[in-house]
Design goal:
heterodimer; A: alpha/beta; Rossmann fold; seven-stranded mixed sheet; 12 strands; B: four-stranded antiparallel sheet; 10 helices; binds adenosine-5'-triphosphate; binds magnesium ion
Chain lengths: ~290, ~260
């Protein structure tokens, strides 16, 4: 089946898709383990989500409904480009609604609306190796994963506390999957880490430049690393979303005028809009 | 007393070149063994073999494992051997950059081994790091500084603290004082001697400095061209050398 002239369904040829699916199956079988795969050249530069796109292309079917988010929004350049890429090459349905999506490709966020069974999250990953910061040698990091030698990840958190008085790592906060592999969750805020734990959805991670795929199967334990006396904590805000009044979603600070006016609003635009449609209001609306 | 280390017929060659050959000795708990010899005589090769950093071409190195007694270290699984190396052993490198993590603070350098064996209480790790910095005479006010901001002597002392924090029973040192000023060397040697004596740590120390050997080592091995040419109690070897090469070494290096 082909939509855009001259391309296979979802751009990648079937042989490449099968290769990627094999990598995905292996990744699902060993939660958190980075599976090498033969990453293909994509019609987008690295850093634009080529790993996530290849994963999506390999799992996408004509009956799927795709949602693409970047920084929590569906209308940013990156999200729009990827969505239109798949519309052109696969012709399947797309949506902004988390509830309606069967596949959600993401950069930077996990939706606020709880995921459900049958949904698949696809994360775009720039740097898949959580040990890379201390160990540049690939052979050595493989060995460290193989032997579960993860003391150096604690060293990183130790340094945070020593220098800032608290664990200052706010994005790409390392997790341990299923009590075994330490994994980089991609540059999502640590606020989203708890959503990965025991999620009913399948979570797939694709790194294009580094040629790695890894996965968290549904209902898998995902723990954020920490210290007993400095337990993992997510961000919190003094105020609620100015638009929908949500007090428990991830907020972005936005500048509202050139006089230094600012407000805090949900980074997940679909979630925010849904709440407004349901009649919730924030102080911006009330005022 | 049980042997801590038993080395038999140990050889390492690099292709056709001999690194070290036919080395055999026993080491007992708390004992300090010095290895001396001219440049290229195989000291580093031997030390790297003994400390499992380099796999020997032939021979056996058996270590008294806490749970199972004398065990060929190359019969251990890799995780067991790596665990041994970072808990019951210490390795102090000649170049501090090889033994320290230069990109993290002094405290993290000392705490790393603790975290590697499962310590997960920041406050306790930090207290322990401070304690060890004090023991190696580094001002605890420097705990959050990077090792690159330390002097050569401080870096060596930090390496020592980083190794001793898990209370190893055996420490390997390759020229720990070379490249340091004479006065700094003296202070470091003094510190090593005090710590090794107080903690009863066994030590294999490579040096080309007979003064270091005189001060630290109970026993001495003299190497030449990869082979051990003389081996005995330090004072005996230095005061009454038997092998012509040792006689040369002693007469040429020791100030009369
Ligand atoms: N990686 C290597 N590859 C090939 N030959 C090596 C290697 N390392 C050491 N050698 C050789 O093995 C012999 C012993 O070298 P080694 O470094 O053990 O001597 P050393 O006694 O430590 O010398 P120094 O006092 O200069 O440090 C030398 O002939 C050396 O050239
Ligand atoms: Mg040497």
């Amino acid at each position: 089946m082909s939509t855009a002239q001259g391309y296979n369904f979802a751009y990648l040829d079937e042989q490449t898709k099968r290769m990627i699916r094999r990598a995905i199956l292996k990744a699902v079988a060993i939660p958190g383990y980075q599976v090498p795969f033969g990453s293909r050249e994509m019609p987008l530069p690295y850093g634009w989500g080529t790993g996530g796109i290849q994963v999506t292309a390999a799992i996408l079917g004509p009956d799927d409904t795709l949602k693409v988010i970047d920084q929590g929004a569906d209308d940013t350049t990156n999200a729009v480009n990827i969505r239109s890429f798949f519309q052109k090459t696969a012709g399947m349905a797309t949506t902004d609604r988390t509830r309606e999506a069967s596949i959600i490709q993401t950069r930077h966020r996990i939706p606020e609306t709880p995921l459900v069974e049958g949904q698949i999250m696809v994360y775009q990953v720039p740097i898949p190796e959580p040990l890379r910061w201390l160990e540049p040698r690939e052979g050595e990091t493989r060995k460290m994963h193989g032997l579960a030698e993860y003391g150096v990840m604690q060293v990183k958190l130790y340094e945070d506390i020593a220098h800032y008085g608290h664990i200052s790592t706010a994005y790409d906060y390392p997790v341990r999957v299923n009590g075994r592999y330490v994994m980089s969750p991609s540059p999502i805020p640590k606020f989203d880490n708890p959503k990965m734990d025991n999620s009913p959805a399948l979570q797939l991670f694709g790194a294009g430049r580094e040629k790695r795929i890894y996965a968290i199967p549904p209902y898998t334990r995902v723990e954020s690393l920490d210290f007993e006396d400095h337990p993992f904590q997510i961000e919190s805000w003094d105020q609620a979303c100015a638009i929908c009044g949500s007090a428990d979603s991830y907020l972005d600070e936005i500048v509202t005028d050139d006089k230094g006016g600012r407000m805090f609003v949900c980074s997940d635009t679909d979630y925010c809009g849904e709440r407004v449609a349901a009649g919730h209001t924030g102080e911006e609306q009330a005022a | 007393m049980n042997k801590l280390l038993q080395v038999t017929d140990l050889s390492k060659n690099y292709g056709s070149r001999i690194g070290c050959e036919g080395v055999a000795f026993d080491l007992y708990p708390g004992e300090v063994l010095g290895i001396v010899g001219e440049s290229g005589s195989g000291k580093t090769t031997l030390l790297r073999c003994l400390s499992a950093q380099l796999e020997p071409s032939a021979g056996r190195i058996a270590y008294d494992m806490r749970t199972q007694g004398l065990t060929d270290i190359w019969s251990l699984s890799e995780p067991e051997r790596r665990m041994l190396m970072r808990t019951d052993w210490g390795i102090v490198h000649q170049n501090a950059r090889d033994g320290l993590r230069m990109e993290v603070s002094a405290g993290a350098n000392v705490g790393e081994r603790l975290m590697a064996v499962g310590a997960r209480h920041y406050g306790n790790i930090r207290t322990e790091a401070e304690d060890w910095l004090t023991k190696v005479e580094i001002d605890t006010g420097r705990i959050d500084d990077l090792p690159a901001t330390f002097s050569g002597g401080m870096q060596q002392r930090l390496q020592i603290a980083r190794n001793l924090v898990t209370q190893p029973r055996l420490v390997f040192m390759d020229e720990p004082t070379s490249g340091l000023d004479v006065s700094v060397q003296a202070r470091l040697l003094d510190l090593i001697r005090t710590l090794v004596n107080r903690l009863g740590i066994a030590c294999v120390i490579v040096t080309h400095d007979l003064g270091v050997v005189r001060l630290l080592a109970h026993r001495l091995m003299v190497m030449r061209r990869g082979r051990v040419v003389e081996h005995g109690l330090t004072d005996q070897v230095l005061d009454d050398p038997q092998h012509p090469y040792t006689q040369l070494l002693v007469s040429s290096i020791l100030p009369v």
